[in-house]
């Protein structure tokens, strides 16, 4: 679904979320089948330790092997547990006062990240990031670089089936064959080998000798911009590829550490306290009833996976509606209409009201703490509009991009510097625009290209843009773009001069006004002034950013309540019921076995412990593997886009790692209580009296 700003329709978003839910169920079942070997591998890993503890063996080599397992498995599990707890912030859980990582967690993160980066550095080397080329003095190299980039964007050639049929004299019905051309992958970030080799050659020449050439045909300004953009994007792409591979390696190693660390450690510790005999019987029972154990695992895995995804989305939306101290922003919108359409003059009115506030309630520089938004949707091809050639612009004051745009706070210093330079260029050239990196790949465009965009909401207006920079991948703006508000105002004035009348949206071309004030008292005072009906016609309102998000989500309130209070408890109830049925069937099938155990001296409380322990082990391990898998997959893939407003992507939070174990433990314990009591009450005499 393309990003459509704050006016994404409720029905469209609802259908998308429900579609995601259906995909989650089907996808989680497939993932559960694929991770089933991991589940039994962890059980085998635990059982290997118990097997190693049985030293009744007369063969020296086997005895030595058992001793190695007996010592090595706990050491590896403790190491994995310590690494996992340290990496995810357990040591600083009670000491940190913000969302920032604590000092101990930071040490674990840095050491682990550096280790994985060194592992992949040979496979994916990074080109030097600080090489500067004066392209004016290297025109031949620049033009060859542009030529190689153009060649890399050409469609991949395929067999022409129509030509083949013509040669062999075959006829076909129209529409019965697949398309005869296959466009190159638009979202791929893989660097073309020829382009990478040439950029590497340029860097080697720049480092080791002269790179500059003389020619009578100097570069144009557009060629210089294009060459610099291609060179920079390739250099940065090598780092992005290494980061991506390092993230995958990091995720795989941590996945193994999580599976072989906390749960096995917990089982080993419990066996030391409660005795190894019960756990040995539990593990043997799980392996003996392979099909039943597998089905129980799949049920818990699927339902926990779905719950994890739902709770992660709810957690993500909840975080948006929480007020952020130290960066209080307000959003001014039209009071009685959605979408908000305000007069351009409202901006100056708001600035006037801010100046009326007491000095301690005014920002240091008002112009740096106010930003307007107008939403401009357009297409590169009005005759054949597609998702690939459609684009959405946030029309704003360029100097406010870095200072006021939400979601850009975590950019690196170099990324912020480049956006600051781009903002300055947009001030100087109203036609300059910044477009998200993902959207550029989708449109098969690059920095330096020119665009002719026909507006969809501002009818009869066509914009001519020059792409000067891109929003980095991973930000919420990677699929969007921003343009200079002055260009929109100029086009509306030109429309009036050409037609003799105002454009229908000329007096409605301001959708939002962002304001940042130093404290809560300032917001309350300004909000009271803005609410005065004499100040604005039509009436407007101001909300703190978190409150505005909450109000924007209010149309989804019923859907979110359904997810939180109906669907989630329903899934928990289904999981509990399934576990109860499975454990109940197992107890009925094993009545004779339980009776034999009682005859052999096993007390009823021990039988109760065996049934509960078997359910708990399967539940905790299945739920834990489910959330660890969800966390690893979603976060390693860079998040999942959320098609509501401009909220960007959501990730599985680190807290989710314990959700699975908790869900599995609660549902398994609840579902196995009645079957465990039935096993506790089994009388050996009654069972054997029925044996013929």
Please render the helix and strand layout as text.
Elements: H1 10-52, H2 60-87, H3 103-120, H4 139-152, H5 161-168, H6 193-208, H7 221-260, H8 262-274, H9 276-288, H10 290-320, E1 329-334, H11 346-355, E2 370-379, E3 390-396, H12 401-404, H13 413-428, E4 432-436, H14 437-443, E5 450-455, E6 462-471, E7 481-484, H15 485-499, E8 512-516, H16 520-530, E9 540-544, H17 545-552, H18 557-589, H19 591-599, H20 604-636, E10 640-641, E11 649-650, H21 656-681, H22 684-689
Parallel strand pairs: 3-7, 4-6
Antiparallel strand pairs: 1-8, 1-9, 2-3, 2-5, 2-8, 4-7, 5-6, 10-11
Helix pairs in contact: 1-2, 1-9, 1-10, 1-20, 2-7, 2-8, 3-7, 4-6, 4-7, 7-8, 7-20, 8-9, 9-20, 10-18, 10-20, 10-21, 18-21, 20-21
Strand content: 5-15%
Q: Count of DSSP E strands? A: 11
- Overall pLDDT metric: 80
Rg from Cα: 32 Å
Protein structure class: alpha+beta
- Biggest sheet details: 6 strands, mixed, barrel
| Ends distance | 67 Å
């Amino acid at each position: 679904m393309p990003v459509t700003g704050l006016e994404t329709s409720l029905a469209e978003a609802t259908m998308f979320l429900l579609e995601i839910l259906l995909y989650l169920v089907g996808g989680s079942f497939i993932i559960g089948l694929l991770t089933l070997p991991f589940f039994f591998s962890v059980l085998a890993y635990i059982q290997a330790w118990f097997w190693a503890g049985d030293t009744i063996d007369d063969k020296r080599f086997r005895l030595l092997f058992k001793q190695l397992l007996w010592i090595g498995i706990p050491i590896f599990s403790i190491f994995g547990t310590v690494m996992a707890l340290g990496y995810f912030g357990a040591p600083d859980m009670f000491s940190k006062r913000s969302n920032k990582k604590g000092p101990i967690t930071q040490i674990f993160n840095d050491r682990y990240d550096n280790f994985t980066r060194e592992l992949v550095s040979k496979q994916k080397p990074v080109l030097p990031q600080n090489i500067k080329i004066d392209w004016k003095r290297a025109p031949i190299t620049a033009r060859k670089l542009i030529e190689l980039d153009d060649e890399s964007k050409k469609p991949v050639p395929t067999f022409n089936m129509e030509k083949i049929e013509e040669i062999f004299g075959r006829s076909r019905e129209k529409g019965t064959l697949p398309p005869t051309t296959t466009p190159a992958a638009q979202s791929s970030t893989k660097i073309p080998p020829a382009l990478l080799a040439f950029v590497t050659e340029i860097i080697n020449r720049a480092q080791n000798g002269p790179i500059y050439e003389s020619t009578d045909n100097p570069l144009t300004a557009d060629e210089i911009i294009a060459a610099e953009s291609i060179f920079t994007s390739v250099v940065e792409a090598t780092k992005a590829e290494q980061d991506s591979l390092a993230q995958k390696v990091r995720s795989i190693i941590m996945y193994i550490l999580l599976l072989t660390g906390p749960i096995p450690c917990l089982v080993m510790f419990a066996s030391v306290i409660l005795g190894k005999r019960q756990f040995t019987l539990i593990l043997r029972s799980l392996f003996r009833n392979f099909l039943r154990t597998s089905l129980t695992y799949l049920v818990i895995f699927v339902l926990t996976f779905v719950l994890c995804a739902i709770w992660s989305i709810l957690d993500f939306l909840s975080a948006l509606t929480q007020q952020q101290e130290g960066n209080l922003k307000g959003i001014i919108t039209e009071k009685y209409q959605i979408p908000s359409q305000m007069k351009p003059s409202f901006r100056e009115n708001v600035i006037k009201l801010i100046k009326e506030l007491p000095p301690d309630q005014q920002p240091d520089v008002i112009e740096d703490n106010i930003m307007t938004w107008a939403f401009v949707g357009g297409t590169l091809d009005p005759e054949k509009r597609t998702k690939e050639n459609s684009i959405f612009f946030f029309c704003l004051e360029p100097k406010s991009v870095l200072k006021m745009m939400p979601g850009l706070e975590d950019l690196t210093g170099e990324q912020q510097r480049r956006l600051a330079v781009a903002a300055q260029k947009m001030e100087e050239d109203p036609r300059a625009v910044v477009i998200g990196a993902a959207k550029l790949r989708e449109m098969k465009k690059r920095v330096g290209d020119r665009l002719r965009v026909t507006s969809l909401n501002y009818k009869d207006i066509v914009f001519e843009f020059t792409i000067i920079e891109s929003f980095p991948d991973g930000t919420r703006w990677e699929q969007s773009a921003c343009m200079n508000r002055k260009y929109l105002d100029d086009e509306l004035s030109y429309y009036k001069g050409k037609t003799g009348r105002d454009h229908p949206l000329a007096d409605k071309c301001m959708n939002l006004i962002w304001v940042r004030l130093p404290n809560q008292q300032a917001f309350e005072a300004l909000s009271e002034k803005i609410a005065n009906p004499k100040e604005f016609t039509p009436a407007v309102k101001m909300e703190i950013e978190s409150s505005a998000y909450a109000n924007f989500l209010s149309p989804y309130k019923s859907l979110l309540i359904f997810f939180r209070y109906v669907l989630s408890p329903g899934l928990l109830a289904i999981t509990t019921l399934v576990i109860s049925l499975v454990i109940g069937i197992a107890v009925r099938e094993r009545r004779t076995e339980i009776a034999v155990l009682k005859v052999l001296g096993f007390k009823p409380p021990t039988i109760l412990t065996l049934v509960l322990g078997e359910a708990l082990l399967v539940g905790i391990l299945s739920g834990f593997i489910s959330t660890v898998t969800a966390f690893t997959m979603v976060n390693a893939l860079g998040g999942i886009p959320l098609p509501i407003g401009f909220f960007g992507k959501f990730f599985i939070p680190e807290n989710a790692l314990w959700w699975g174990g908790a869900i599995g433990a609660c549902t398994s314990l609840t579902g196995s209580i009645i079957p465990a009591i039935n096993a506790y009450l089994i009388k050996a005499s009654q069972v054997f009296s029925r044996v013929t």
